[in-house]
Write a structure and sequence with these properties.
- The protein contains seven helices and no strands.
- By secondary structure, the protein is an all-alpha fold.
- The chain has two domains: about 1-30; about 35-175, Ferritin, core subunit, four-helix bundle (Ferritin, Up-down Bundle), CATH 1.20.1260.
- The model is unreliable at about 5-30 and about 185-193 (pLDDT under 50).
């Protein structure tokens, strides 16, 4: 019986070592993420279509035009998106990249152009998440964060900018309340994400 237990223990150890070796051979990066998952995390935060870039764009619009909607609410949402991604960096032990967009984005000439720029930025952001979903499919937490952030861009931010473009670039509070914010939203026309 003792030799059977020893044999079973050795078999479990062998399986564990084999699985570890297979993971190492599949491009595991820091924090247990694959190289592809790590790249997805970095790009969604710090890439040209990522959350830092969106936050910087909406910040420059607010600096130029004042506290106008929907830019103020959406910049607030982008701050939450950045925080959600930073938590994932910390969880997986990946260094948070520098924000290379803050203070370096040129504001558009008009609010109408700002709305059009917002439309394009949110479309690119949705496409970014779509492109990286396969890279994080084995990480349920990352998949959930990416899904939530993608949904916010598609279901809240994009319609807000489309409505703003139809209203010469900005929305009043009544127009903000008519927007289709996702379930679980913050009410009063404020985006959930």
């Amino acid at each position: 019986m003792k030799s059977l237990t020893t044999l079973a223990t050795a078999f479990v150890l062998l399986l564990t070592l084999s699985a570890t070796a297979q993971q190492a051979g599949r491009g595991r990066a820091s924090g247990g993420l694959t190289t592809e998952a790590r790249q997805a995390l970095v790009e969604t935060l710090a890439g040209p279509e990522g959350e830092f870039a969106a936050h910087a764009l909406y910040t420059t619009i607010l600096k130029k035009f004042g506290d106008v909607q929907p830019y103020a609410n959406i910049r607030e949402a982008e701050t939450r998106h950045i925080q959600a991604l930073r938590r994932q960096f910390e969880k997986y032990g990946v260094a948070i990249p520098e924000d290379k967009f803050a203070g370096k984005v040129t504001p558009p000439e008009t609010l109408l152009q700002a709305a059009k720029d917002g439309i394009e930025a949110e479309k690119k952001n949705v496409a970014l998440y779509d492109g990286y979903m396969a890279a994080v499919k084995n990480y349920p937490d990352l998949t959930q964060v990416f899904t939530n952030l993608r949904s916010a861009s598609l279901e809240a931010h994009l319609p807000a900018f489309q409505a703003a473009a139809a209203s010469q670039g900005q929305l009043d509070e009544a127009e903000m309340q008519k927007l289709p914010w996702p379930k679980g939203g913050r009410g009063k026309g404020r985006p959930a994400n």
